[in-house]
Amino acid sequence: MPEIITSKVAIGISACIYDCPVRYNGRAFDALRLLGREKADFVWTPVCPECLAGLGVPRMPIHLTGSGQEVLAGNAKVKDRRGRDVTEVVIAGSRAAIEALERAGIEAFIAKESSPTCGLYKARIGKRRTETGGGSGVFGAMLIERGWFLIPDQALANPLTWWDWRRRLHAWLWLKRRELKGARELYDAWHVLKFIVQETDRPFADAFGRRLAALPKRPTAAEIEALRHEALDALRRPSNKARIRAAAWKTFAHARKKGRLKDVDMHGLDVTAPSERADVERVATELVLMERISFENDLLFGTTPVVRRDRRRVRDAR
Predict the structure, then answer these.
(1) 42 three-class SS
(2) DSSP line for 250-276
(3) Residue 167, domain member (yes or no)
(4) Which residues does residue 80 pair with via DSSP β-bridges, in sequence order?
(5) Are residues 79 and 112 in the same domain?
(6) What is the number of domains present in the chain?
(7) 287 and 205 in a common domain
(8) Could you give the 3-state DSSP secondary structure of residue 200?
(9) What's the distance, Cα to Cα, between the start and end of the chain in Å?
(10) pLDDT tens digits, residue range 193-238?
(11) CA separation for the pair 304, 294 (Å, rounded)
(12) What are the tens digits of pLDDT across the range 304-314?
């Protein structure tokens, strides 16, 4: 049976991609338009570290002289276009954003990449766009320190990438919140989630499974938490279209071969084999339908082992 999350997931987001006109030039992006009605499945907390820093709208663009981690360590600065040092206020604004997210119970965040504040892995370093390099923004560095589930805004580029990040978020939250008292509980949890990790790192997944099987019956709490942390890290690694399609087809073919789909309402689903070309919208539609069919029939769909449903829908289905 699939595991169910019934509460709405609280998720933070850079305000400028939540259609709030807080960018330096007063513009905004509605990055969530792709979600449609699914947007209501989450409780959103938009924040803008630069506004909380008191820089205002509109404002001069800012840039980093080093990564956000270096800024926090005191080894780099944040400056505006005229060369004014705004390091202290940007750090203060980023801390204020973190505090607001913590009050909201946030454990996941969608960040605007390439931003000198919110960027997770592609923060803008230097005055010119051609100088953009790796590293985090100031706020992004603070987010990484907290170990939250972090999603770059590119995840909202198309339905398939969002589906991948969303299913990983739900699986991550389920494992993070699950009570694990001993080796048996940890092994059972891994059995639910291992198919997702196998997509992106089969050697790690296989080795991790062997390590769990070799655990003593009463491992220490520290050992259990260390293994949970490894599994949580693995769930944060995104997949790609080819891997997703192959995993979905494997799961579907296995269920069909075992007769689990016999006499099941398929809602018009016609899953295509990986050898056939299909656009991301079609693949995402197939996957969402497979999730729905699995939920309605108490089948574990390994590609999405944890789903989010309203309590009423869970009660009616059961």
Answers:
(1) strand
(2) HHHHHHHHTTTTTT---TT--PPPTTS
(3) no
(4) 62
(5) yes
(6) 3
(7) no
(8) helix
(9) 12
(10) 999 999 999 999 999 999 999 999 889 999 999 999 999 999 999 9
(11) 9
(12) 999 888 866 55
Q: What is the phi/psi pair of residue 108, to 5°? A: -140, 150
CB 209, CB 201: distance < 8 Å:
no
Q: Which comes out higher in pLDDT, residue 115 or 255?
A: 115
Q: Is the dihedral of CA 108, 304, 263, 298 positive or negative?
A: negative
Q: What is the pLDDT of residue 135?
A: 81
Contact 6, 103 (CB under 8 A): no
Determine how many CB atoms are found less than 10 A away from the CB of residue 131: 11
Do 35 and 48 contact (CB within 8 A), yes or no?
no
d(CA 7, CA 17): 24
Domain range for 107 is 3-156
> What is residue 284's predicted lDDT score, i.e. its pLDDT?
87
% of the chain residues with pLDDT over 70: 92
Instruction: Pick the closest to residue 304 from 187, 174, 176, 212 (CA basis).
Output: 174
Residue 123 lies in a domain: yes
Rounded-to-integer distance, Cα 194 and Cα 53, Å: 42
Which residue spans within 117-221 are E strands per DSSP?
A: 149-152
Sign of CA dihedral 112, 117, 119, 125: positive
